[in-house]
Structure formats: C-alpha cells, structure tokens
Amino acid sequence: MTDKQKPVFNSDKPLTDPTQDQFNRDKFAEMLAKSIVEMVPPEGLVIGLYGKWGTGKTTLLNFVRHYLEQYKKEQPIIIEFNPWWFSGEGNLTWHFLRHFSAQLIRWPDKVSKIVGKSIQKMADLVAIVPPHEYTSIPQKLVNFFFKREAPTMQELKDRVESDLARSNVRILFIIDDIDRLTADEIRELFRTMKAIANFPNVIYLVAFDDDVVAKALEDVQGKGISGREYLEKIVQVSFPVPHASNIIALLEEELDEIFADTDSKFWNRHSFKVIVNYVDLENLIRTPRDVRRLVNSLKLTYPALMGEVNPSHFLLIETLRVFRPKIYDMIRTNKWRFVETRFSLTYAAYTGKSFREGVHQFHKDWTDKHPDLKPLVKFLFPAIIEMDDPFRSTRGVDVGDLKINDPDRFDAYFSFALPPALASQDQIDRLVNLTSQPDDFKAELLRYDGDPRLKNLLHGISSRYRNIDKQAIPGVLHVLIDADRDFSEEWHLTGGRRDIIHRLLERVDVAEGLKLLTDAIGEIELVPYYADTILEYGVRRVFASEEKDELLKHPSYDKLKEFVLTAINKISQSNDWVNLFHSDMLNLWRLLTSKEEVQAWLHERFTHVNLKLFTDKELVEFTYMGVLEISSDGQHYYFRENWLLLDEEHMAAFEQRAKYARYDEDRIDGAVMNTFLNKYHSWKESLELSEESQDGRTTANPDTGQAKLFALDDTQESQD
Fold it and tell me: Which of 438, 531, 435, 447 is nearest to 487 (CA)?
C-alpha cells in the first residue's frame, strides 16, 4: 500500500475553530457568547449544556470561548475547570476552589486578587476538613490549625459576595466532563456549586449528560426529591446541544473517500442511498463521535478486504460490530441460521418440524427484543429473515456480488482477512481469463486440487459465467467433465462445477447443447454422474422447446439418446443397478423409452429377496437419493417419480425392509428413514381414503387428497 493509500484516521479531538464546524452549531455558540457578554447576574447564574457523550459538548464550549474572545472590552474573566483531571484524588471541592482562586489571583485588577485570596482561604479551610463536614466543624479546631483566629466558611463566602458586588468584575466559570466523574464526585461538585452559585457577576457554564448527572444526584436531599429536581434547583438555564441534522450526509462523504478505489459495480453514488432508504442508520449513528468511530473502524478493516466483500454489506456489519456488538456476535456465531443453503434446508426438513420451529423462534426472539434492527439484518440476509416463514422458498435470492449471505463469503466479514477456504477475486479472475485456453485452464484448476479454496473458486467462475467467451464453452465443458479422471475424490463433492456446466449450457441453443453434452461426457461410465445435467439441460430442454418435433429427429439428440441408453442398459444388467436410482437415471430411462419398460425392470428388482441384499447404509443412501425428495421451501417431502412406478406390492416390500434397518436415530440417517416410513404410511392412508370415496363412504377427492402432497406429478414427457 502506498503512502497515498494509507488511511488517515479521524481524530476525536474537539474542534476550536467555528469555521471547521460541519453541523451548523457555530451560530448557537455565537448567540450564547453574546448573551453571556451582556449578562450581569446580581446573584450568579448557572447555564447548562446538556448532551450525550459524543454529541459535541466540548466543541461547543470551545466555540463559545472563541466568540467571547472577539469582545475585547466586554469579555469576562474566563476560568476553565475540568474536574475529570482530579477524579479519584479525593477532596474535589478543594481542587475546585484552589483552581478558582489561582486564576483570579493572576488577574491584574485589584478586586480579582482580593476575591481570589478569599477563595484561597476557603480552599485552605476545605483542605483540613472533609467537604461534607466543613459547615459544622468546631471553630476552635479551625483556629488550632490556622494558629490564629480564622474566619468561618460563611464569613469568607460573605466577603467574596460583597467584594464582587461592589466591583465591575465579571467571571465566566466553564466546567466540562462532569458526567465522567463517579457518582460520589458528581454529588460533591454539585454541593460545592450550590454553595457558591450565588456569587454576584459570576456565570457558570457547565456541560454534561443530564441523565447521568440526574441519576447521580438521586436522594441527595433525602427521599422524595429526585435527582432531576435537585439539578433544576442549581441550573437556572439549560440548553440541549443542537442536533447534528446532517450526520448521515457527513457519513456519506466519509464513505465515498473510504470506498474511492472500490469497483463502481459495488459502490457508486446510488449505493448509499439504497442503504438509507432501507435501513434507519440514524438509529445507530447519532453523534459526530459515532461517525468518527465507524469511519475509523472502516479505515482500519476495509482495505484488507477491498474487492473481496460487498462494501454496502461490510458497512452494515461493521456498524453492528461498533454499535451493537451483541447482535454482531449473534450473527457471527449462528451462520447457518442466517445463511441459507440447500443443505441447511434439507437437514432442517429431515430433522423435523421442531427444528424449523426452533429457527423460527430464534429469529422471533431477537427481533422482538431488537425490532429496530430487523430492516438492517433483512437487508443483509433477505432469504432467511422472513419472520412469518423463515423456510420459505428462496429461489432467485441473490447471493452474488460478494454479499455476506453467500455461505462461502460469510466468514470473511468476521475475520478481517480472507479465510483459508476463500479464494481472492484476483484468483477467480485469472481462471476466468484462462477459459479461452483449455489446457492452461485445466492446469490452473489442477493446482487447486485438494485446496480448500477450490469450491469457492468454482463458485466464483459460476458467478462470472457471462464473462466466458462463447467460443470457449466447449473447451470449458470438456475440462470440467474430463477433470473427473484427473482430480481427487474431493473434486466429485465440489458442486460449483455443475453450476458452471449448467449455466454455460443455457447460453447455447438446444441442438448445440445436446452435442456439447455428448462430446464432453464421452464415456458411458460418467452418465450416472451427469444424469441430472443430461435430463434438465438436454432431454427436457428438447421437450420444452417449440421446435420439439425437429429436435427429436436431430442427429445430436439421436446420439445422446443412444449414448444414455447404452449406459442405462449396461448398468441395469450389472451389480451396480442401484446407481439407476441416483441422479434421475430412471427419469431419463422413462423419458427416452417408456414407463412400462422401466416398471418391468423395477418389479423384477424390488422383491423381498433382492431388497435383502441392501446393507443398512446402502438402504439409507438409496432412500435419500432414490425415494424421498424435499420441496424447495424445505417443508414438504415427495416420493420421487421413479418410486411411483412401483405398484403397492413392491412398495410394501421396500417398506418391510426399511422397518428392520439399523441406523442411528440421532443422526440424519434416522431422520431420513423415519421420514420415509411416516410418509409411506400417510400415502397408504390416502389411498384408503380414495377407495372409500369410490365406495361412497366419504366425499374426499383423491386428486386433492394427502397422496398429492407427498407425490410428484407423474408427468408424461416421453416422446411416445
């Protein structure tokens, strides 16, 4: 990073020059300074400036002083006292009076020096007596310490009042950071101010958080008198610190600087407006100090992740980290309750309704406690944060553009660096650029075999599929499918490659897609692995096309059909016939031939004798892959189409075998098998209801009965 790129952190130091004001508060400070110059309070006056931490109280006091200094002749003596400097040292009253006297004694006029010396004696008296006792201390004890006849505290106070009343001396005593003191120190300071608040020609300008101070002053004068009432007795005039109305505008200006080098695709002049229209940022970022805190945080964390995270999403998750850390940690530690994937929905469904209700309750609980944050979190996770139904269908929800709801990118938002399993955008871009050179593309992919970044690299290529030149598509398909022979077993478990294959096939016409599929797959042994691709992006595209009749006669279709049926025939006659129930192989067989041909083969295989050959592990896998299918919303189960090709006798045989399978009830294996048995019994009951309706014993309609809920339509798509 060059010096020019290094972030410059915003200082939290209060401003002193009103020309640097960004919140239009200089006019208020100028008005207040003018009023102070014109005031001559005969019994003293206490003016309060109230505001939370970070609202700019100290800056406002500095502006008042700046404008007071413009009055050369009318300017009062200005004494500034910050009690926080002496916090924890004890006897705050002594520090207060000592500072008051020292400043006056330095002043050139005679009266100021006289008043200063009287106040110094008051401080000396306080030094030998605890502050809460100096009004009741025996005078003889005081005389003993002073070695002479000393004036009482009241006599000293009367002397100061008399001297000030007879003079033209005017004093402004500015006190800041009162709300940083302990509760005991706040009470001590306000007792002192109450005792001397009526000094003539003296104005106290005090700034603090009135809620903090009022709480500390509770019961100072006994029960029944609130801290707020006590405060109002001392502070005669109070003003809230003027609201900084352009806080969000200031934040936008700072963000444009932070994200200046970010790709305009991810951050442009509309990006922040989209956030503001959806999220109430002013609820979280209320003061100038809040802006500085967030901006400084982003300047520290964003550079390492620029180009790897979505800036809008990173801004919001950092906002939570800075201002609502508990919500931030809740999201960070509950990834799978916020980031939805097909696996999480499948697991949720197979583990039953209670799991879904648990996730629903989880989101309801935190949104009930923090309803103001729901829009922000929903902006980040639009798929899952639907409180009425957190498992609704989320097809079409965008997880691209480096967003936090991308499961592969989620962890980067919380690690402030790329996690080991996350590929950089540069690495993804390099692979995309190599797609026009198949050999180099394959060699680069092989470099990541066994690398945890491989899955993310493939997902990255998939999201950039439109950047792949159309002429390069055949070569890319060959590389991705042919890589099955060269990569380790982990490659077969990496789903990203299928997304690339499917998206590239969508970019070519149907006839060309048929040819590309046949050429790229090449060997019949690979047909089971790509049966879903052949089915959806080959055969069903043909049936859905307006040119279906012509395509069914196309040489590429004939070649693909022959290729697939050769594979099916070989597998159906082998000991690996169970593979036909995986990846829609039976659907392909049925669509390319006839339902009756497939049924005949199934009835031969689904006998009690053959089913006994299944191991329990194979039975679970077979049930999951071949029998049950979960709906896209994760709430319903279906029997797959190939299961419906069986008659009741053969279905009963499978159910009987499933009853005696041994599996772990606490794992997903148990959930799969229990789900099958429950749904099978429901299916049988629905058949019985249908039979009863035909006998006139019920009015149930079999077309709308329970069977329909658990079974896919047996749509006849075959060419016959």
Answer: 447
